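Page 42, continued from yesterday. The earlier attempt failed because a stray header line got pasted into the input along with the sequence. Redoing it now with the clean sequence only.
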Amino acid sequence: MNRRTLLHATTALGAATLTTAAAAAPAEASASGSPRRDRPLRVHVVMFDGVEELDFTAPYEVFSASDHFADRPVRVRYVTLGGPRTVRAAFGTGLRVDHGWAPEEADLLVVPGGGYARRDDPGVWAELRRGSLPRALAAAARPGLTVSALCTGVLLLSAAGLTKGRPCTTHHRALADLERQGGVLKNARVVDDGDLVTAGGVTSGLDLALWLVRRELGADAAVGLEDMLEYEARGTVWTARSGR
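This time it went through. Structure tokens are written below.
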């Protein structure tokens, strides 16, 4: 049985390489606020100076293209604190962000990483020192909102207190920092703990987004996206145990 057959056939995980304790995460994600299927899935990708290019573009493209493969419409936007502005990414890309911070209008937040190896440059370390973004993330948490992050963006969630005592992962070079700050590390490419979903470094943004598409929009949407992207989701997805 090939991978795409498995994606269609199971309601747990979509590949032989994907392992799970239970298929509880989708139910848990909606336990405190069930998603409304009669309106778009609203995805906000969080932007800041020094953000890694692939960290934000890969999830943005996956979620934007998912609108062509699912019955439920998907609306994706880049957002920043402090209102619309031009963000300068890690390798010099300038991107105009037209939407300000509005997590109350989102079903899913995606927090990229970037700049963690360069403490004096714009990026995650600068945001940690400033403190505004971690505080905003902490205040954003509410029933019905899934907060996700990839790469060193997970350290921004950690600073917000969102990963303490919870299963999570991040870029391999930041795992020790995440564990010291109270995260419960899982050896997986994507870690789904219901309303908190984290992923490893850089290219893991593809797998994070494909997993969330599958969770929120179904296996057919994930399969269609993989065909379009000519990319098959890789690595392990860890999901929370039922009744944890």
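Notes: Residues 119 and 125 are 6 Å apart (CA to CA).
Reminder to self: strip header lines before submitting.
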